[in-house]
Design brief:
alpha/beta, 5-stranded antiparallel β-sheet, 29% helix
Amino acid sequence: MEKKWWHDKVAYQIYPKSFYDSNGDGIGDIPGIISKLDYLKDLGVDIVWLSPCYPSPLADQGYDISDYYGIDPRFGTMEDMEKLIAEAKKRDMYILMDLVVNHCSDEHEWFKKACEDPNGKYGGFFYLRDKEEGKRPTNWRSYFGGSVWDDLPGTDKQYLHVFHKKQPDLNWENPELREEVYKNINWWLEKGLGGFRIDAIMNIKKALPLHDYEPDRDDGLCSVRAMLAQAEGIGEFLGEMRDRTFRKYDAFSVGEVFSEKPEELPDFIGENGYFSSIFDFNATIFGKSGKGWYDASAITPEDYKNCCFQAQERVGGVGFLSNIIENHDQPRGVSYYIPQGDCCPESKKMLAALNFMLRGIPFIYQGQELGMENVPFSSIEEVDDISSQDEYLVALNAGLSPEEALDAVARYSRDNARTPMQWSDEPHAGFTEGEPWLRVNPNYRTINAAAEQSDPSSVWNFYKRLIALRKDPLYAETIVYGVLEPFLRERHNLMAYYRKGEKTLLVIGNYQKKEQDVTLPAPCKKVLLNNYPEVSMEGRTIRMQGYQALILEM
Protein backbone atom coordinates (compact mmCIF):
# COMPACT_ATOMS: atom_id res chain seq x y z
CA MET A 1 0.00 0.00 0.00
CA GLU A 2 1.25 3.46 -0.90
CA LYS A 3 1.68 5.39 2.33
CA LYS A 4 -0.20 8.68 2.63
CA TRP A 5 0.23 11.56 5.05
CA TRP A 6 -3.13 10.92 6.72
CA HIS A 7 -2.70 7.21 7.49
CA ASP A 8 -1.12 7.71 10.93
CA LYS A 9 -3.23 10.71 11.97
CA VAL A 10 -5.84 11.12 14.70
CA ALA A 11 -8.90 13.19 13.79
CA TYR A 12 -11.30 15.20 15.94
CA GLN A 13 -14.74 16.44 14.95
CA ILE A 14 -15.96 19.84 16.11
CA TYR A 15 -19.60 20.87 16.06
CA PRO A 16 -18.87 24.62 15.95
CA LYS A 17 -22.20 25.76 17.43
CA SER A 18 -21.52 23.78 20.61
CA PHE A 19 -17.72 23.80 21.00
CA TYR A 20 -16.70 27.11 22.59
CA ASP A 21 -18.31 30.55 22.59
CA SER A 22 -15.81 33.44 22.58
CA ASN A 23 -18.23 36.39 22.56
CA GLY A 24 -21.01 35.45 24.99
CA ASP A 25 -23.86 35.11 22.49
CA GLY A 26 -24.52 31.48 23.47
CA ILE A 27 -23.26 30.06 20.17
CA GLY A 28 -19.83 28.49 19.64
CA ASP A 29 -17.64 30.21 17.06
CA ILE A 30 -14.39 30.06 15.10
CA PRO A 31 -12.42 32.35 17.46
CA GLY A 32 -13.50 29.93 20.20
CA ILE A 33 -12.07 27.02 18.20
CA ILE A 34 -8.79 28.91 17.69
CA SER A 35 -8.54 29.46 21.46
CA LYS A 36 -8.81 25.69 22.03
CA LEU A 37 -6.27 24.51 19.43
CA ASP A 38 -3.66 24.00 22.13
CA TYR A 39 -6.13 21.82 24.05
CA LEU A 40 -6.47 19.63 20.95
CA LYS A 41 -2.72 19.62 20.32
CA ASP A 42 -2.09 18.57 23.93
CA LEU A 43 -4.52 15.67 23.48
CA GLY A 44 -2.62 14.60 20.35
CA VAL A 45 -5.05 15.56 17.59
CA ASP A 46 -3.73 16.05 14.03
CA ILE A 47 -6.84 16.61 11.89
CA VAL A 48 -9.79 18.80 12.91
CA TRP A 49 -13.08 18.42 11.03
CA LEU A 50 -15.57 21.26 11.38
CA SER A 51 -19.26 20.59 10.88
CA PRO A 52 -20.73 23.29 8.60
CA CYS A 53 -20.04 26.92 9.46
CA TYR A 54 -21.17 28.37 6.11
CA PRO A 55 -24.05 30.89 5.92
CA SER A 56 -27.28 29.00 6.57
CA PRO A 57 -30.84 29.51 7.80
CA LEU A 58 -30.15 26.49 10.05
CA ALA A 59 -33.21 24.46 9.07
CA ASP A 60 -30.91 21.46 9.55
CA GLN A 61 -28.22 23.03 11.73
CA GLY A 62 -26.03 24.28 8.90
CA TYR A 63 -26.42 21.35 6.53
CA ASP A 64 -28.60 23.69 4.46
CA ILE A 65 -26.01 26.02 2.93
CA SER A 66 -27.02 29.36 1.41
CA ASP A 67 -23.49 30.42 0.36
CA TYR A 68 -20.64 27.97 -0.24
CA TYR A 69 -18.09 30.81 -0.29
CA GLY A 70 -18.91 32.38 3.06
CA ILE A 71 -18.76 31.97 6.83
CA ASP A 72 -21.95 32.41 8.80
CA PRO A 73 -21.70 35.60 10.91
CA ARG A 74 -22.85 33.55 13.93
CA PHE A 75 -19.52 31.73 13.75
CA GLY A 76 -17.25 34.61 12.73
CA THR A 77 -15.70 35.93 9.54
CA MET A 78 -13.67 34.62 6.63
CA GLU A 79 -10.65 36.27 8.29
CA ASP A 80 -11.33 34.12 11.37
CA MET A 81 -11.45 31.03 9.16
CA GLU A 82 -8.18 31.93 7.47
CA LYS A 83 -6.59 32.53 10.88
CA LEU A 84 -7.83 29.12 12.08
CA ILE A 85 -6.21 27.41 9.08
CA ALA A 86 -2.96 29.32 9.68
CA GLU A 87 -2.90 28.66 13.44
CA ALA A 88 -3.57 24.96 12.87
CA LYS A 89 -0.72 24.83 10.37
CA LYS A 90 1.66 26.33 12.95
CA ARG A 91 0.82 23.34 15.16
CA ASP A 92 1.20 20.78 12.33
CA MET A 93 -2.57 20.30 12.29
CA TYR A 94 -4.98 20.15 9.37
CA ILE A 95 -8.46 21.64 9.07
CA LEU A 96 -11.25 19.77 7.26
CA MET A 97 -14.54 21.37 6.32
CA ASP A 98 -17.84 19.69 5.65
CA LEU A 99 -18.67 19.31 1.95
CA VAL A 100 -22.46 19.35 1.59
CA VAL A 101 -23.25 19.06 -2.11
CA ASN A 102 -26.18 16.66 -2.37
CA HIS A 103 -28.35 19.67 -1.61
CA CYS A 104 -28.14 23.36 -0.81
CA SER A 105 -30.52 25.71 1.01
CA ASP A 106 -33.70 27.03 -0.56
CA GLU A 107 -32.19 30.43 0.31
CA HIS A 108 -29.19 29.83 -1.97
CA GLU A 109 -28.95 32.12 -4.99
CA TRP A 110 -29.24 29.14 -7.35
CA PHE A 111 -32.61 28.11 -5.94
CA LYS A 112 -33.93 31.67 -5.94
CA LYS A 113 -33.03 31.95 -9.63
CA ALA A 114 -34.65 28.57 -10.33
CA CYS A 115 -37.88 29.92 -8.84
CA GLU A 116 -37.66 33.00 -11.08
CA ASP A 117 -37.02 30.94 -14.22
CA PRO A 118 -37.57 27.18 -13.73
CA ASN A 119 -36.82 26.52 -17.41
CA GLY A 120 -33.56 28.48 -17.32
CA LYS A 121 -29.99 27.57 -16.39
CA TYR A 122 -30.58 27.36 -12.63
CA GLY A 123 -33.78 25.37 -12.96
CA GLY A 124 -31.46 22.70 -14.38
CA PHE A 125 -29.46 22.73 -11.14
CA PHE A 126 -32.38 21.00 -9.37
CA TYR A 127 -34.84 18.15 -9.91
CA LEU A 128 -38.00 19.93 -11.06
CA ARG A 129 -41.19 18.24 -12.24
CA ASP A 130 -44.53 19.59 -13.44
CA LYS A 131 -47.13 19.77 -10.71
CA GLU A 132 -50.17 17.48 -11.09
CA GLU A 133 -53.25 18.05 -8.95
CA GLY A 134 -53.55 15.43 -6.19
CA LYS A 135 -50.44 13.55 -7.33
CA ARG A 136 -46.70 13.64 -6.55
CA PRO A 137 -44.00 12.82 -9.11
CA THR A 138 -42.97 9.85 -6.90
CA ASN A 139 -44.06 8.31 -3.61
CA TRP A 140 -40.69 8.65 -1.83
CA ARG A 141 -40.52 9.60 1.84
CA SER A 142 -37.81 12.03 2.90
CA TYR A 143 -35.30 11.21 5.64
CA PHE A 144 -37.11 13.69 7.88
CA GLY A 145 -40.61 12.41 7.11
CA GLY A 146 -43.28 13.37 4.54
CA SER A 147 -42.99 13.52 0.77
CA VAL A 148 -39.72 14.44 -0.94
CA TRP A 149 -41.70 16.79 -3.23
CA ASP A 150 -42.77 20.35 -2.50
CA ASP A 151 -44.14 23.17 -4.63
CA LEU A 152 -41.54 25.40 -6.26
CA PRO A 153 -42.66 28.87 -5.09
CA GLY A 154 -44.32 31.00 -7.73
CA THR A 155 -44.35 28.24 -10.37
CA ASP A 156 -46.43 25.26 -11.54
CA LYS A 157 -43.57 22.89 -10.67
CA GLN A 158 -42.38 20.84 -7.74
CA TYR A 159 -38.81 20.23 -6.54
CA LEU A 160 -37.13 17.20 -4.96
CA HIS A 161 -35.65 17.23 -1.45
CA VAL A 162 -34.61 13.92 0.13
CA PHE A 163 -33.91 15.75 3.41
CA HIS A 164 -35.73 18.86 4.75
CA LYS A 165 -37.97 20.88 2.42
CA LYS A 166 -35.50 23.75 2.83
CA GLN A 167 -32.76 21.48 1.38
CA PRO A 168 -33.47 21.10 -2.36
CA ASP A 169 -31.44 18.32 -4.01
CA LEU A 170 -28.84 19.40 -6.56
CA ASN A 171 -28.99 17.75 -9.97
CA TRP A 172 -25.61 16.08 -10.42
CA GLU A 173 -26.63 14.87 -13.86
CA ASN A 174 -26.08 18.49 -14.97
CA PRO A 175 -22.40 19.09 -15.88
CA GLU A 176 -22.76 22.84 -15.24
CA LEU A 177 -23.76 22.12 -11.66
CA ARG A 178 -20.79 19.80 -11.18
CA GLU A 179 -18.42 22.50 -12.49
CA GLU A 180 -19.72 24.90 -9.85
CA VAL A 181 -19.16 22.29 -7.11
CA TYR A 182 -15.58 21.59 -8.22
CA LYS A 183 -14.80 25.30 -8.49
CA ASN A 184 -15.89 25.79 -4.89
CA ILE A 185 -13.94 22.78 -3.56
CA ASN A 186 -10.75 24.03 -5.22
CA TRP A 187 -11.33 27.56 -3.92
CA TRP A 188 -11.28 26.23 -0.35
CA LEU A 189 -8.30 23.93 -0.95
CA GLU A 190 -6.38 26.93 -2.29
CA LYS A 191 -6.97 28.55 1.11
CA GLY A 192 -5.00 25.73 2.71
CA LEU A 193 -7.66 23.30 3.88
CA GLY A 194 -6.38 19.77 4.52
CA GLY A 195 -9.48 18.32 2.89
CA PHE A 196 -13.15 17.57 3.45
CA ARG A 197 -15.62 15.29 5.12
CA ILE A 198 -18.22 14.61 2.43
CA ASP A 199 -21.84 14.64 3.61
CA ALA A 200 -24.63 12.32 2.41
CA ILE A 201 -22.76 11.76 -0.85
CA MET A 202 -24.48 8.51 -1.86
CA ASN A 203 -27.67 10.50 -2.45
CA ILE A 204 -26.27 12.43 -5.43
CA LYS A 205 -27.09 9.59 -7.86
CA LYS A 206 -30.79 8.93 -8.38
CA ALA A 207 -32.27 5.88 -10.08
CA LEU A 208 -33.50 7.30 -13.39
CA PRO A 209 -36.15 7.69 -14.62
CA LEU A 210 -37.74 8.62 -11.27
CA HIS A 211 -40.61 6.29 -10.36
CA ASP A 212 -42.67 4.90 -7.45
CA TYR A 213 -41.69 1.99 -5.20
CA GLU A 214 -43.71 -0.32 -2.96
CA PRO A 215 -45.05 1.66 0.05
CA ASP A 216 -43.53 0.58 3.38
CA ARG A 217 -45.79 2.45 5.83
CA ASP A 218 -49.46 3.37 6.12
CA ASP A 219 -48.72 6.83 4.69
CA GLY A 220 -48.46 5.26 1.21
CA LEU A 221 -44.83 6.36 0.88
CA CYS A 222 -41.60 4.40 0.68
CA SER A 223 -38.22 5.24 2.13
CA VAL A 224 -35.96 7.09 -0.28
CA ARG A 225 -33.44 4.32 0.45
CA ALA A 226 -35.48 2.02 -1.83
CA MET A 227 -34.60 4.29 -4.75
CA LEU A 228 -30.94 4.59 -3.74
CA ALA A 229 -30.62 0.80 -3.71
CA GLN A 230 -31.51 0.86 -7.43
CA ALA A 231 -29.23 3.78 -8.39
CA GLU A 232 -26.18 2.91 -10.50
CA GLY A 233 -23.28 4.91 -11.87
CA ILE A 234 -22.35 7.12 -8.93
CA GLY A 235 -18.69 6.29 -9.56
CA GLU A 236 -18.63 8.51 -12.65
CA PHE A 237 -19.45 11.53 -10.49
CA LEU A 238 -17.17 10.58 -7.60
CA GLY A 239 -14.19 9.75 -9.83
CA GLU A 240 -14.56 13.02 -11.68
CA MET A 241 -14.75 14.97 -8.39
CA ARG A 242 -11.61 13.22 -7.08
CA ASP A 243 -9.62 13.97 -10.24
CA ARG A 244 -10.77 17.57 -10.53
CA THR A 245 -10.27 18.48 -6.85
CA PHE A 246 -8.84 16.31 -4.04
CA ARG A 247 -6.11 14.60 -6.04
CA LYS A 248 -4.67 17.88 -7.31
CA TYR A 249 -4.01 19.02 -3.72
CA ASP A 250 -3.16 15.67 -2.08
CA ALA A 251 -6.16 16.44 0.13
CA PHE A 252 -7.71 14.09 2.66
CA SER A 253 -11.31 13.15 1.92
CA VAL A 254 -13.57 11.03 4.08
CA GLY A 255 -16.98 10.02 2.78
CA GLU A 256 -20.23 9.56 4.65
CA VAL A 257 -21.00 6.37 2.72
CA PHE A 258 -23.79 4.04 3.85
CA SER A 259 -24.68 1.87 0.90
CA GLU A 260 -21.70 0.96 -1.24
CA LYS A 261 -21.81 -2.56 -2.63
CA PRO A 262 -19.04 -4.92 -1.37
CA GLU A 263 -17.51 -5.25 -4.83
CA GLU A 264 -17.29 -1.45 -5.09
CA LEU A 265 -15.12 -1.01 -1.99
CA PRO A 266 -11.80 -0.80 -3.90
CA ASP A 267 -13.38 1.93 -6.05
CA PHE A 268 -14.21 3.93 -2.95
CA ILE A 269 -11.06 3.56 -0.80
CA GLY A 270 -8.58 1.45 -2.78
CA GLU A 271 -5.27 2.74 -4.20
CA ASN A 272 -7.17 4.89 -6.69
CA GLY A 273 -10.27 5.35 -4.55
CA TYR A 274 -12.78 8.16 -4.82
CA PHE A 275 -11.99 9.01 -1.17
CA SER A 276 -9.05 8.67 1.20
CA SER A 277 -11.35 6.89 3.63
CA ILE A 278 -15.00 6.22 4.49
CA PHE A 279 -16.63 6.04 7.91
CA ASP A 280 -17.51 2.70 9.45
CA PHE A 281 -21.22 2.91 10.31
CA ASN A 282 -21.73 -0.82 10.92
CA ALA A 283 -22.44 -0.41 14.62
CA THR A 284 -24.39 2.85 14.29
CA ILE A 285 -26.96 1.36 11.90
CA PHE A 286 -27.24 -1.99 13.71
CA GLY A 287 -30.76 -2.77 14.93
CA LYS A 288 -32.41 0.16 13.16
CA SER A 289 -35.94 -0.40 11.86
CA GLY A 290 -37.74 0.89 8.81
CA LYS A 291 -40.72 1.56 11.07
CA GLY A 292 -38.84 4.19 13.08
CA TRP A 293 -36.64 4.69 16.12
CA TYR A 294 -39.30 3.32 18.45
CA ASP A 295 -38.92 -0.11 16.82
CA ALA A 296 -35.10 -0.25 16.92
CA SER A 297 -33.26 -3.02 18.79
CA ALA A 298 -30.69 -2.14 21.44
CA ILE A 299 -27.14 -3.16 20.52
CA THR A 300 -25.44 -5.68 22.83
CA PRO A 301 -21.71 -6.12 23.51
CA GLU A 302 -21.73 -9.18 21.22
CA ASP A 303 -23.44 -7.16 18.48
CA TYR A 304 -20.89 -4.36 18.80
CA LYS A 305 -17.99 -6.81 18.59
CA ASN A 306 -19.40 -8.48 15.51
CA CYS A 307 -20.16 -5.15 13.81
CA CYS A 308 -16.55 -4.04 14.26
CA PHE A 309 -15.04 -7.34 13.11
CA GLN A 310 -17.36 -7.62 10.09
CA ALA A 311 -16.37 -4.12 8.95
CA GLN A 312 -12.68 -4.94 9.38
CA GLU A 313 -13.05 -8.19 7.43
CA ARG A 314 -15.00 -6.46 4.67
CA VAL A 315 -12.25 -3.89 4.15
CA GLY A 316 -9.23 -6.10 4.86
CA GLY A 317 -6.19 -4.49 3.28
CA VAL A 318 -8.14 -2.65 0.56
CA GLY A 319 -7.95 0.72 2.30
CA PHE A 320 -8.63 2.64 5.49
CA LEU A 321 -11.86 2.98 7.39
CA SER A 322 -12.44 6.00 9.61
CA ASN A 323 -13.55 4.57 12.95
CA ILE A 324 -16.07 6.37 15.14
CA ILE A 325 -17.84 5.84 18.44
CA GLU A 326 -20.15 8.80 17.86
CA ASN A 327 -20.67 11.93 15.77
CA HIS A 328 -23.08 14.86 15.45
CA ASP A 329 -25.78 12.57 14.00
CA GLN A 330 -25.61 9.94 16.76
CA PRO A 331 -26.35 9.71 20.47
CA ARG A 332 -23.39 9.63 22.83
CA GLY A 333 -21.52 6.36 22.30
CA VAL A 334 -20.97 5.57 25.99
CA SER A 335 -24.73 5.79 26.58
CA TYR A 336 -25.42 3.71 23.49
CA TYR A 337 -22.80 0.94 23.43
CA ILE A 338 -22.36 0.38 27.16
CA PRO A 339 -25.21 -1.61 28.77
CA GLN A 340 -27.65 0.56 30.73
CA GLY A 341 -26.46 1.24 34.25
CA ASP A 342 -22.84 0.29 33.51
CA CYS A 343 -21.57 3.70 32.36
CA CYS A 344 -18.46 4.47 34.44
CA PRO A 345 -14.89 5.64 33.78
CA GLU A 346 -13.65 2.05 33.34
CA SER A 347 -16.31 1.07 30.77
CA LYS A 348 -15.79 4.33 28.87
CA LYS A 349 -12.05 3.69 28.67
CA MET A 350 -12.64 0.09 27.54
CA LEU A 351 -14.87 1.28 24.69
CA ALA A 352 -12.22 3.83 23.72
CA ALA A 353 -9.45 1.23 23.59
CA LEU A 354 -11.48 -1.32 21.61
CA ASN A 355 -12.43 1.26 18.99
CA PHE A 356 -9.15 3.17 18.85
CA MET A 357 -6.97 0.16 18.21
CA LEU A 358 -8.98 -1.04 15.21
CA ARG A 359 -7.22 -0.72 11.86
CA GLY A 360 -8.11 2.64 10.37
CA ILE A 361 -8.15 6.33 11.19
CA PRO A 362 -9.62 7.11 14.63
CA PHE A 363 -12.12 10.00 14.78
CA ILE A 364 -12.97 11.51 18.16
CA TYR A 365 -16.14 13.60 18.44
CA GLN A 366 -15.98 16.61 20.75
CA GLY A 367 -16.60 15.57 24.34
CA GLN A 368 -16.04 11.89 23.58
CA GLU A 369 -12.60 12.23 25.14
CA LEU A 370 -14.34 13.29 28.37
CA GLY A 371 -16.86 10.45 28.30
CA MET A 372 -19.78 12.86 27.78
CA GLU A 373 -23.16 11.10 28.08
CA ASN A 374 -26.70 11.42 26.73
CA VAL A 375 -28.74 14.29 28.15
CA PRO A 376 -31.96 13.59 30.10
CA PHE A 377 -35.17 14.81 28.39
CA SER A 378 -38.33 15.54 30.35
CA SER A 379 -40.52 16.65 27.41
CA ILE A 380 -40.46 16.86 23.62
CA GLU A 381 -40.41 20.68 23.98
CA GLU A 382 -36.77 20.35 25.08
CA VAL A 383 -35.82 18.69 21.78
CA ASP A 384 -34.31 20.89 19.05
CA ASP A 385 -33.40 18.29 16.40
CA ILE A 386 -35.87 18.04 13.49
CA SER A 387 -35.35 14.31 12.93
CA SER A 388 -36.08 13.65 16.63
CA GLN A 389 -39.28 15.68 16.44
CA ASP A 390 -40.38 13.67 13.40
CA GLU A 391 -39.55 10.35 15.08
CA TYR A 392 -41.60 11.39 18.12
CA LEU A 393 -44.65 11.81 15.86
CA VAL A 394 -43.90 8.48 14.14
CA ALA A 395 -43.88 6.76 17.54
CA LEU A 396 -47.15 8.42 18.61
CA ASN A 397 -48.78 7.42 15.32
CA ALA A 398 -47.65 3.83 15.96
CA GLY A 399 -49.65 3.83 19.20
CA LEU A 400 -46.97 4.60 21.77
CA SER A 401 -47.83 6.83 24.72
CA PRO A 402 -46.14 10.27 24.88
CA GLU A 403 -43.84 8.91 27.62
CA GLU A 404 -42.87 5.88 25.53
CA ALA A 405 -42.36 8.01 22.41
CA LEU A 406 -40.13 10.44 24.30
CA ASP A 407 -38.12 7.53 25.71
CA ALA A 408 -37.55 6.15 22.19
CA VAL A 409 -36.49 9.55 20.89
CA ALA A 410 -34.24 10.30 23.87
CA ARG A 411 -32.15 7.20 23.24
CA TYR A 412 -31.33 8.13 19.63
CA SER A 413 -31.71 11.93 19.47
CA ARG A 414 -28.98 13.90 17.74
CA ASP A 415 -29.36 16.53 20.48
CA ASN A 416 -27.44 14.17 22.77
CA ALA A 417 -24.26 14.92 20.83
CA ARG A 418 -25.04 18.58 20.26
CA THR A 419 -25.26 19.79 23.85
CA PRO A 420 -22.46 22.26 24.64
CA MET A 421 -18.95 20.99 25.26
CA GLN A 422 -18.26 20.61 28.98
CA TRP A 423 -15.13 22.66 29.67
CA SER A 424 -15.41 23.21 33.43
CA ASP A 425 -17.76 23.18 36.41
CA GLU A 426 -18.44 26.89 35.98
CA PRO A 427 -21.95 28.03 34.89
CA HIS A 428 -23.01 26.60 31.50
CA ALA A 429 -20.00 24.24 31.75
CA GLY A 430 -17.66 27.09 30.82
CA PHE A 431 -19.00 26.96 27.26
CA THR A 432 -20.40 30.50 27.26
CA GLU A 433 -20.84 33.54 29.46
CA GLY A 434 -24.28 34.01 27.87
CA GLU A 435 -27.30 31.75 27.56
CA PRO A 436 -26.37 28.58 25.58
CA TRP A 437 -28.36 27.89 22.40
CA LEU A 438 -29.01 24.32 23.63
CA ARG A 439 -29.12 23.35 27.29
CA VAL A 440 -26.02 21.92 28.93
CA ASN A 441 -26.03 18.37 30.27
CA PRO A 442 -26.50 18.75 34.07
CA ASN A 443 -23.65 16.29 34.73
CA TYR A 444 -21.08 18.91 33.64
CA ARG A 445 -20.12 19.49 37.27
CA THR A 446 -18.43 16.08 37.38
CA ILE A 447 -17.71 15.45 33.67
CA ASN A 448 -15.63 18.34 32.31
CA ALA A 449 -12.27 19.01 30.69
CA ALA A 450 -10.73 21.01 33.55
CA ALA A 451 -11.33 18.26 36.09
CA GLU A 452 -10.23 15.46 33.77
CA GLN A 453 -7.03 17.10 32.53
CA SER A 454 -5.82 17.34 36.13
CA ASP A 455 -6.82 13.76 37.01
CA PRO A 456 -4.24 11.19 35.79
CA SER A 457 -6.87 8.40 35.91
CA SER A 458 -9.53 10.28 33.89
CA VAL A 459 -11.10 9.28 30.60
CA TRP A 460 -9.37 12.29 28.98
CA ASN A 461 -5.93 11.13 30.09
CA PHE A 462 -6.69 7.60 28.89
CA TYR A 463 -7.46 8.98 25.41
CA LYS A 464 -4.22 10.95 25.56
CA ARG A 465 -2.30 7.77 26.35
CA LEU A 466 -4.09 5.89 23.53
CA ILE A 467 -3.05 8.58 21.04
CA ALA A 468 0.52 8.59 22.38
CA LEU A 469 0.70 4.80 21.92
CA ARG A 470 -0.54 5.12 18.32
CA LYS A 471 2.28 7.62 17.66
CA ASP A 472 5.01 5.76 19.57
CA PRO A 473 7.76 4.96 17.01
CA LEU A 474 8.07 1.45 18.46
CA TYR A 475 4.42 0.60 17.73
CA ALA A 476 3.13 3.06 15.14
CA GLU A 477 3.85 0.86 12.12
CA THR A 478 1.96 -2.06 13.66
CA ILE A 479 -1.00 0.00 14.87
CA VAL A 480 -1.39 1.91 11.59
CA TYR A 481 -0.62 -0.76 9.00
CA GLY A 482 -0.70 -4.09 10.85
CA VAL A 483 -3.40 -6.67 10.14
CA LEU A 484 -6.25 -7.28 12.55
CA GLU A 485 -7.09 -10.81 13.68
CA PRO A 486 -9.90 -11.56 16.16
CA PHE A 487 -8.94 -13.57 19.27
CA LEU A 488 -11.44 -15.76 21.21
CA ARG A 489 -14.19 -14.37 19.02
CA GLU A 490 -16.83 -16.78 20.31
CA ARG A 491 -16.24 -15.89 23.96
CA HIS A 492 -19.32 -14.12 25.30
CA ASN A 493 -18.87 -10.44 26.19
CA LEU A 494 -15.18 -10.53 25.39
CA MET A 495 -13.85 -8.44 22.51
CA ALA A 496 -10.23 -9.23 21.76
CA TYR A 497 -8.03 -8.98 18.69
CA TYR A 498 -4.44 -8.95 17.53
CA ARG A 499 -2.71 -6.19 15.62
CA LYS A 500 0.16 -7.86 13.79
CA GLY A 501 2.97 -6.14 11.94
CA GLU A 502 6.52 -5.38 13.07
CA LYS A 503 5.22 -6.21 16.55
CA THR A 504 2.39 -8.39 17.80
CA LEU A 505 -0.11 -6.58 20.00
CA LEU A 506 -3.16 -8.05 21.71
CA VAL A 507 -6.13 -5.86 22.61
CA ILE A 508 -8.55 -7.34 25.18
CA GLY A 509 -11.76 -5.87 26.55
CA ASN A 510 -13.96 -7.55 29.16
CA TYR A 511 -17.27 -6.17 27.89
CA GLN A 512 -19.27 -6.81 31.08
CA LYS A 513 -19.41 -5.97 34.77
CA LYS A 514 -18.58 -9.54 35.83
CA GLU A 515 -14.95 -10.72 35.97
CA GLN A 516 -13.72 -13.32 33.50
CA ASP A 517 -10.45 -15.18 32.99
CA VAL A 518 -8.52 -15.02 29.74
CA THR A 519 -5.62 -17.36 29.02
CA LEU A 520 -3.01 -15.88 26.74
CA PRO A 521 -1.70 -18.02 23.85
CA ALA A 522 1.87 -16.85 24.47
CA PRO A 523 3.84 -14.95 27.13
CA CYS A 524 3.15 -11.22 27.49
CA LYS A 525 6.25 -9.09 26.97
CA LYS A 526 4.76 -5.82 28.20
CA VAL A 527 1.49 -4.20 29.29
CA LEU A 528 1.23 -1.13 27.08
CA LEU A 529 -2.10 0.19 28.36
CA ASN A 530 -4.50 -0.75 31.16
CA ASN A 531 -7.60 1.07 32.39
CA TYR A 532 -7.09 -0.35 35.90
CA PRO A 533 -4.17 0.31 38.27
CA GLU A 534 -2.85 -3.24 37.89
CA VAL A 535 -3.16 -6.57 36.08
CA SER A 536 -4.12 -9.75 37.93
CA MET A 537 -2.13 -12.50 36.16
CA GLU A 538 -1.14 -16.03 37.13
CA GLY A 539 1.10 -17.65 34.56
CA ARG A 540 -0.61 -16.85 31.28
CA THR A 541 -4.09 -16.44 32.76
CA ILE A 542 -5.41 -12.93 33.37
CA ARG A 543 -8.32 -12.27 35.71
CA MET A 544 -10.07 -9.47 33.78
CA GLN A 545 -11.98 -7.08 36.03
CA GLY A 546 -15.35 -5.68 34.98
CA TYR A 547 -14.86 -3.59 31.82
CA GLN A 548 -11.11 -3.96 32.03
CA ALA A 549 -9.20 -3.16 28.83
CA LEU A 550 -5.62 -4.22 28.15
CA ILE A 551 -3.23 -3.60 25.29
CA LEU A 552 -0.37 -6.09 25.47
CA GLU A 553 2.83 -6.59 23.52
CA MET A 554 3.17 -10.32 22.93
